[in-house]
Design goal:
Shape: elongated
Number of helices: 3
Helix content: 55-70%
Largest sheet: none
Distance between the termini: 69 Å
Order of helices and strands: HHH
Oligomer: single chain
Radius of gyration: 28 Å
Strand content: under 5%
Length: 69
């Protein structure tokens, strides 16, 4: 079964022109204008360092327990 769309030569030429056209930086994509895309994340910036510290403490604790016993 052929699922390709059939295009006229004019449609193919128009498509190739659109693909080869350089990006227009004067008129950016709509998502670039969204203010939430420019804001820093309001997440929990302390979570990753806290997890790293917790893992290091656990590993060091297991090593000490393993060495002492």
């Amino acid at each position: 079964m052929d699922t390709r769309e059939s295009h006229t030569p004019e449609e193919e030429l128009q498509h190739l022109k659109e693909v080869k056209e350089p990006e227009d930086f004067e008129h950016p994509e709509p998502d670039e204008d969204q203010p939430e895309a420019r804001e820093p994340s309001q997440g929990l910036p302390w979570v990753l360092p806290a997890i790293i510290v917790l893992v290091v403490v656990i590993v060091v604790g297991l090593l000490v327990i393993g060495i002492v016993d």
